[in-house]
């Protein structure tokens, strides 16, 4: 059972990593990476932010913002504009297609979150505590790496049972 738990943990971690690394379709014809979707959300949440402000908000370099804004502009998801009286700074806003991509992405996460919430609400307090304790233990052990039983070895509890 322990090896199955550990295997499932690493499978979930891999799925989360893949979800962030593999582009998804949230607009009519564009594959969007996780970072691009984050930038779309940030532009939506901060409509009068320039590249420097966006980089500070997102915790990435201005160069990364510039690269992503070029790609998102080419994909027609955002557009650059200048404020009256400030011809130097460039600001960004979502296009109609960018707003649609953001909405589809939010709907995707909302559906997944709703399923999880329904499951968690169905748990007894004791079961919920076990899961909460597990997550706390995983956070304590971060970063985690491959366990012995995942690489073909045997679990510690299985070894203890053999010794008894």
From TrEMBL:
Name the SMART domains for this protein.
HTH_MARR (SM00347)
Q: Which InterPro entries match?
A: HTH_MarR-typ (IPR000835), Metal_resp_HTH_trans_reg (IPR052067), WH-like_DNA-bd_sf (IPR036388), WH_DNA-bd_sf (IPR036390)
Where does the source fall among the domains of life? Answer: Bacteria
The UniProt entry, under Gene3D superfamilies, shows: Winged helix-like DNA-binding domain superfamily/Winged helix DNA-binding domain
Q: Which UniProt keywords apply?
A: DNA-binding, Transcription, Transcription regulation
Please report the stretch or stretches of sequence annotated as the HTH marR-type domain. 25-128
Which Gene Ontology molecular function entries are recorded, alphabetically?
A: DNA binding; DNA-binding transcription factor activity
Q: What is this protein called?
A: MarR family transcriptional regulator
